[in-house]
From TrEMBL:
One of its GO terms (molecular function) is DNA-binding transcription factor activity. This is AraC-like DNA-binding protein. The keyword DNA repair does not apply. Residues 147-248 form the HTH araC/xylS-type domain. It holds the Pfam family HTH_18. Keywords: DNA-binding, Transcription, Transcription regulation. PROSITE patterns: HTH_ARAC_FAMILY_1, HTH_ARAC_FAMILY_2. SMART domains: HTH_ARAC (SM00342). The keyword Transmembrane helix does not apply.
Length: 266
């Protein structure tokens, strides 16, 4: 995941009572820290209170209102994926405040602006997606075989000999039926979901190592025996080649450094 911005309403001098209808070009994750009220998303009204989380797809109109005021933290993420079939999700943090902790960490590393802090920030975005998906799955009718396949996928991102069809066959489900229930939970086919997991892993390696590792090396680390095939899958998912992505990230890193030097670190 590419985290583009982390913001917080509690930086303002007063608690907000409303935020007008607006849209963004990226996915927005909103964590409500204080206050209760109504959030309207595409004419659908949802109540919110402290600990509630809203997942808003790009270009989706939304607004918040509260009689006594509210404070929240928001994270804008590029290439975030739908959680389940629908893009809009209203979830709740766990008793340990896992998402609250991730949001606080994201704010800290977003302020830093350095190359390494940006890499950590993107990893936090990846982790946030996995945590929110876990929360969603726990609220659905559990299927241990489905959860088991997703765990197997995660454990075999770097395995070039991993056979997804064989892993699915071991669940005991008919292939077509398994694809239907998997798409119901994730909004993706098993193959596309696994390809996107590998691409996200490749992006995290690119962000971590910058230009110090070759495309071929990155591809091998993500379970691809053929670097050209890896490039085709990467472009299908991201809309650009791995090389173009690395150059884009390198350019952004240097622009952030230049701006940081110009403003004296503010």
């Amino acid at each position: 995941m590419d985290v583009m911005h982390v913001g917080s309403s509690d930086r303002m001098a007063r608690v907000m009572k409303s935020f007008p209808e607006h849209i963004h070009g990226y996915w927005e994750i909103i964590y409500n820290k204080q206050g209760s009220g109504i959030m309207t998303v595409k004419d659908q009204r949802y109540t919110f209170e402290p600990g509630d989380i809203a997942v808003i797809p790009p270009y989706t109109e939304h607004k918040k209102e509260s009689e006594k005021g509210f404070a929240d933290v928001c994270m804008f993420i590029k290439n975030f994926r739908p959680i389940g079939r629908s893009g809009i999700r209203i979830l709740r943090d766990d008793e340990e405040g896992t998402v609250d902790g991730l949001m606080r960490m994201a704010r800290r590393y977003y302020e830093g602006k350095s190359v390494y802090e940006k890499a950590v920030l993107n990893v936090i975005g990846d982790l946030l997606y996995q945590v929110l998906t876990l929360f969603y799955m726990k609220n659905q009718k559990k299927d241990l075989r489905l959860e088991g396949i997703m765990e197997v996928m995660q454990n075999n991102l770097d395995n070039p000999d991993f056979d997804l069809s064989s892993a699915i066959a071991k669940t005991g489900y008919a292939k077509d039926y398994f694809r239907r229930i998997f798409r119901t939970f994730t909004g993706e086919s098993p193959v596309n979901y696994f390809q996107k997991m590998r691409v996200e892993y490749a992006k995290s390696l690119m962000n971590q190592y910058s230009n110090s590792r070759s495309i071929k090396d990155i591809a091998s680390s993500c379970g691809f025996k053929d670097a050209l095939y890896f490039s085709r899958i990467f472009k299908k998912v991201e809309g650009m080649s791995p090389r173009a992505y690395m150059e884009q990230q390198f350019s952004c890193d240097h622009e952030l450094i230049r701006m940081n030097e110009k403003t004296g670190g503010r």
